[in-house]
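Thread title: Can someone regenerate the structure for this chain?

I was given the following input by a collaborator and told the matching structure tokens would be attached. They weren't. Posting the sequence so someone can regenerate them.
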Amino acid sequence: MAMKISVVGTGYVGAVTGATFAEVCGHSVLFVDVIKDKVDKIRSGKAPFYEPGLDELLSKNRDKLHATTDFSEVRDSDAIFLCVGTPPSPDGSVDLSQVFSAVGCILPYIQDGKFRVIVTKSTVPPTTGEKVIKRLEQKGLVLGRDFGYASNPEFLREGNAVHDSLHPDRIVVGCADKKTEDVMKKIYSSFQCTKIFTDVRTAEMIKYTANALLATKISFANEIARLCSRLGVDVYHVMDAVALDHRVNREFLNAGLGFGGSCFPKDVKGLISLFENMNIPTNLLSSVLDVNESQPLFGINILKESLGGLSRRTVGVIGLSFKENTDDVRETRAYPLIKGILSEGARVVVYDPLASENFVNEYPDVGQKIVLAKSLRDAIDSSDAIVIHTAWDEVKRLSPNSFKEGQVILDGRRALDVEKFKNSDKVTYVGIGW
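Best answer:
Regenerated them for you:
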């Protein structure tokens, strides 16, 4: 049954979620955002950011999608999804100001006796739902009568968000009341996957635990890779064999320069903050971040050994986004990588097909010191050594003949054909853990 849904916030989560509801379920979706430029882009069938497949999804469903800066239009909604940012505070805890601001913006328009479900899809720490409910109750609204509440965390991978949203491996919904559960089941009735209905606090915890575990797997692989580098063992062969054990999944065991993005660093820090607030030691999660912070420096040391030092050398860094198929540079490992290379007295030339402008704006201290290459070819030709930070498709297609004679290549993402490059006499090919 088609329903009327409002989505507050048109970032990665909000825009993809709303477009998916229209595509899979036929729901009528209203996007609400305070930024007019984002609203105008969605109205024209375009995404406010780069995400493969999202423009096509928005354009295809324009008859079911509407966008506005006017919060009063949420009145007609059966459910209002909060998809706003929850950035880290300086102390690592989660800044929930945008969540409560969104609640405040919709509050004047949901006090009319009509039952609506308020759904937090943003990643928020456990007990956030209880605080939102309390905020609404303080305004005289009664849970289960005037409003319902649910926590519905997302599990999207940037660069694959459209696919993940259209084909989820599970849907998690934490409901504060039975009436809300009934509504949420109707909203997701068209999805054929495992659906977990639980309480609000458990749903919030599931999201944090999932991201913390994936981040732990990456840092575990990177720490093993450091030993493999010294032993002359290929860590990818090690992980391939280890993952054949049915108890181990191969995903997120790829060694490299570390993880970045809007989720893993923030969510691990947020979880650590929860531990600290309850006076519970968390040596494991702290170590996960420690390994991730130092991993780019480990890569720089490999590069220094291969070149005999970096002073007065020109190093080309390929890829600035935290992963391929996105222009997102939040917490990208390219920042500490480039900062460390510059501190060694090297000149840095960078190339990224999408994220160069975002990187320079986000990290001006480094952005003012680097040279932006116009193409991948220009970056290679102007450098003594190349560091591959992001595994873009055009990078994966490179062969040893794509590089200059004697050029050192640090493959920080296992993007290249290892056997071809190891067996090449033209270049010096090194990796992290192989």
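The chain has two domains: 4-197, 209-431.
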